[in-house]
Design goal:
There is one protein chain. The longest helix is centred in the last third of the chain and has 18 residues. It is globular and about 40 Å long. The protein is α+β, with helices and mostly antiparallel strands. Strands 1-3-2 form a three-stranded mixed β-sheet, covered by helices on one side. It has one domain: Orthogonal Bundle (Arc Repressor Mutant, subunit A).
Amino acid sequence: MQKKSRYAKSEIDSIISDMYDELGISALDEFELCKRLKVKLKPYSELPAQSKEYVKIMDINSFNVFDKKKKVYTIYYNDFQVPLDITYSILKEIGHITLAHKAGSVSEMIEDEEDALYFAKRALRFLKKEAC
């Protein structure tokens, strides 16, 4: 059974291509991409102990938070993963941000997650990574 998505895959591909063109990106890493998008990055190793324990128990590899006052996104990511998983987690969160995902119904959140996962998979092809 095909998983449901809010966006057509070709639409997500166009969004990624347009974003990279707009930012003048040909090959770089996900940290530079976040810098150009003005998205802050925070590794889990910098979280307070209680928060670290929560994300570990919940098995969350990444999440993003929007600071309404500063009008900036921050992506929190599990820096205890292997490098390629870190890249994928950060790109998935960039997908949520770029596709303007907001909390909604469970079915909308599932669709949003599918879109963000596809975004990350497709965005990986543009990034230059050293072999893991």
